[in-house]
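Fold Annotation — chain and its backbone
Next Lines — sequence and tokenised fold

***
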Amino acid sequence: MSKIVRKSYFSPNVVELEIEAPLIAKARRAGHFVIVRVDEKGERIPLTIASSDIAKGTITLVVQQMGVSSRKLCALEVGDSILDLVGPLGKATHIENFGTVVCAGGGVGVAPLLPIVEALKKAGNRVITVLAARTKELVILEEEMRKHSDEVIVMTDDGSYGTKGLVTEGIESVIKREHVDLCVTIGPAVMMKFVSKLTERYEIPTVASLNTIMVDGTGMCGACRVTVGGKTKFVCVDGPEFDAHQVDFDEMLMRLSAYRDEEQEAKNAL
């Protein structure tokens, strides 16, 4: 059992939870994720660790209410406990001094991007972070990103905050003015697909985190199969980060819709 010690809202549907997990807090690295099971009847939910506090023995997760299980998790309050919390899982992000790195996050993908930005900055990189959201209200962790970035560019679809436009426009504005050695992107699959297409055109190595497709998180279910460089990979055990230019994003987008009908039935049953 893992107790929730803090809860806050970024928006009505996006919740930040700080949870007691001293061993995970001590062992986790940028890119790691955990598996959460709310109760005995709950499904396993893979969530990337946004941050940890070793002194307090806690980890922080950012959860978007989507299906039944994520809604159950977000409904918990401070003092409530989660039945199962397993991790850290997955392969940690490869961190070194690359030079200038553009980190692009969309929606709640900004949360798992935060520890990567922090680690890249500590390694001596020049870090330019591009945050993207539909509206100002959906921009998250901007202040935290500014603490660890040399520059933060905010893009909103409706122009209500920052610059009006897509994440790719923000990235390209950086590419056109200075040399970029690496791009890291986390967000909706369709966003990562077009970020990859952009950076491939400019021959910039790009890493994409495919955590959104995971289900079981241990390589047992096979639901997170993706094709990378013509070979089958399992996101949860081989990733979750891959060379974006080698990922078959069209296949991944089709796989993401595999359980749509079942998810809707579960919602209707509530």
